[in-house]
Amino acid sequence: MAEILVLADHDGETVKKVTVELVTLARRFGEPAVVWTGPGAQEARARLAEFGAAKVYVAQSAEFDDYVVAPKAELLAELAQQKSPAAVLLPSTAEGREVGARLAVKTGWGLLTDVVGLGDGLTAEQVIFGGAVNVSSRVRTGTPIIAIRPNAITPEAADGPAVLEPVSCAVSEAAKQARITERVVQQRGARPELTEASIVVSGGRGVGSGENMGLIEKLADSLGAAVGASRAVTDAGWYPHQFQVGQTGKTVSPQLYVAVGISGAIQHRAGMQTSKTIMVVNKDPEAPIFELADFGVVGDLFKVVPQLVEQIDQRAG
Question: What separation in angstroms does the CA of 11 have from each of 41, 65, 183, 185?
Fold first, then answer.
């Protein structure tokens, strides 16, 4: 059975959820072989084994921690030449897409990004043109390099040996042009990370002010959800930009997406329309966001949301 190389997304301590999603997907098409750069592989081994990883190629050289993106692409290119994988899977994050693009240039292989599913023959399901069109695509040249959107695949446990195998790569001087000079740990609360959360509650222009985003936070906390925001909210300074959902923000695909006071411009829809279930609260029955909604409430969010929180808290209690 051919190997499927999977680039691990991690912070040195924690395996990101998208990594086990990729391992789950890789099992359908071959033998999952995780590529781990930097420290933490020994601690992560049990988690990767839980989801069926057969091997873990570990490159612990400081070069993979000290420089931006390019060394990872060189490592993958070298491993791809040695192992002849059936495919290379990466997370469709900002870093994952850049690694994939650099790998495609080095190998001459085809690259597909923002993939939300894989079918027979590694046929990819994609959303393109800002989320306006769904297509099926296949790589025609070389080994497929496929970037999978986080939360697009449901992780499924399956025991695997996850054998650690040290690997090395002579990183070129060209790959050392951008060096990491400082790392700042972002302070996080108890809420889940936006791109990994199974439930996301987002507020839009309809909330009216930054102070009113507290209402969105209350609903999110009652559901154990992450908080998101539309571009109008972040541009107005009502909420930090790292929580923006949309084409120029973050892409999410949670099990449940709750859009509150969001009209549904194409820019926002591109970042959330692959959510499994979409619930909308908006006072305008003609708002475009209702076209995507599985459940919708036409009403004043300042009346609807407190009632939602009250009902959720009662059921939780």
Answer: 11, 10, 11, 11
